[in-house]
Amino acid sequence: MGFFDKLFGTSEVSFDVRQLLQKGAVIVDVRTPAEYNSGHIKGSLNIPLDQIGTKIAFLKNKNVPVITVCRSGNRSGAAAGVLKSNGIEVYNGGAWDSLQAQMN
Q1: CATH number attached to the domain at 22-103
Q2: Per-residue CA distances from 97 to 8, 41, 101 (Å)
Q3: What is the pLDDT at residue 13?
Q4: Residue 26, strand partner residues
Q5: Does this model's pTM top 0.85?
Q6: Beta-ladder partners of 46
Q7: Contact 90, 67 (CB under 8 A)
Q8: Residue 88 has pLDDT above 70, yes or no
Q9: How far is the C-alpha of 40 from the C-alpha of 29, rounded, in Å?
Q10: pLDDT-derived band of residue 103, with 50, 70 and 90 as boundaries?
Q11: Which of 11, 33, 48, 73 is the most exposed, fewest CB within 10 Å of its CB?
């Protein structure tokens, strides 16, 4: 795993997605609404990266793990960093379609 993979979490998911979902984890797609509407994981929430900071309390109140996703893993990695720095248990799921494939 390279430096940028560690920084942005662009490598394969290194956590058990199914186990987190059984714990009630919520998937947060940080792409734009237009990107989200073109395809997304069923049941995921669309909170664009530029709005993630305004949803900290909302996500904390859920009191469940958060899995962030986007198109490639870069934006979801940035969102995961913001959420983690605010005390939220968060995992960078990377690309939404790759995570969806792992869930099937």
Answers
A1: 3.40.250.10
A2: 17, 8, 6
A3: 61
A4: 66
A5: yes
A6: 29
A7: yes
A8: yes
A9: 8
A10: confident
A11: 33
Segment (H or E) for 103: helix 96-103
Mean pLDDT of 59-73: 97
User: Which two three-digit tokens encode residue 45?
Assistant: 């929430």
Amino acid present at 35 = E
Residue with tokens 């969806």: 100
| Residues 70/93, Cβ–Cβ less than 8 Å | no
pLDDT the model gives residue 17: 92
Q: Which residues pair with 69 in a beta bridge?
A: 29, 94
* Angle, CA of 30, 36 and 40, to the nearest 5°: 100
Token representation of residue 78: 């940035």
Contact by Cβ (8 Å): 69, 29: yes
> Helix H segments across the chain?
3-8, 17-22, 33-37, 56-62, 74-85, 96-103
Q: Which amino acid does the sequence have at 46?
A: N
Rounded CA gap, 65 and 88, in Å? 7
Q: Hey, what are 67's tokens?
A: 């899995």
